[in-house]
Amino acid sequence: MTGQRQNLLQLKADLALLGVSFIWGVTFVVVQNALSSIGPYYFLGIRFLLAFLFLAAIYHRQLVRLNRDTLGAGCIIGVFLFGGYAFQTVGLQYTTASNAGFITGLSVVLVPVFSALFTRQAPGVFAAIGVVLAATGLGLLSLGRGLSFNYGDLLVFFCALCFALHIITVGRYARHLHPPLLALIQIGIVSLAGFLFGLATETWPEHLNRPVWVALLLTAIPATALAFLIQNNVQRFTSATHTAIIFTMEPVFAALSAYFLAGEILTPRQIIGCILILSGMLLAELKGKHIRMISKTSKEVQTSTL
């Protein structure tokens, strides 16, 4: 594969992942409203069950390709994915939404650390600076004037660990396994775990009202089935660090959708945070291309003068 084609594939992958972040961000308000009528675990169980059935209807003929490796990898990825949602859900009961949003976003810092440990390759300079900018922007966007850590914050930190490991494992397994089946299995695992935890800790709602069904359908199809299908298909063409930085755009899209759809106010501090996150993503996207371009131009000039 030529360098130009590889760069084009990575650009398309990053744009697709940015679209996933947009979908997750704009559906955040819908999910918040729905959780007032149904427990979070049952909501996860139904949401991911609908997503599972949607993908199974499309890829049922591909199930003959399901093997032990794909099943095992899907289960591992699914456990990390559910762990992220579960720790976040429980942690929110003991901490503030702003703390939870910031700590969850710290997965952008954890991903390159884990990548370096597992692959023994440090992230590039542009990616490292992008991570710092994105993490700083997350702090400005999510945190108030003070930050105090408590038991809930520790649980949300475990959530960030799980989401970071989810990104890492998708990047590892999606390169050589069947991406749609990988997405199908992990979604099924989250649904199963959601129902099990719901049975143990929640009461089944007497009826599901219209806003809940609207939220379930919006999150099940575009924000779950299509989002994780896209991630599993395209993340093999980009790095885990890039993916983590791009996913920090989710709270930016959430803040913008809350501003336009729910009438919430964006403070100057939050606007600066959004700009820093966007700058971090764009800087990481450069990936040293300008440096290589300058180097190439310099060599051409030297050659022409000989």
Automatic annotation (TrEMBL):
Belongs to the EamA transporter family. It comes from the Bacteria. It comes from Desulfofundulus thermosubterraneus DSM 16057. The keyword Glycoprotein does not apply. The keyword DNA-binding does not apply. This is Threonine/homoserine efflux transporter RhtA. Keywords: Cell membrane, Membrane, Transmembrane, Transmembrane helix. GO terms for cellular component: plasma membrane. It is a multi-pass membrane protein. Signal peptide: none annotated. It holds the Pfam family EamA.
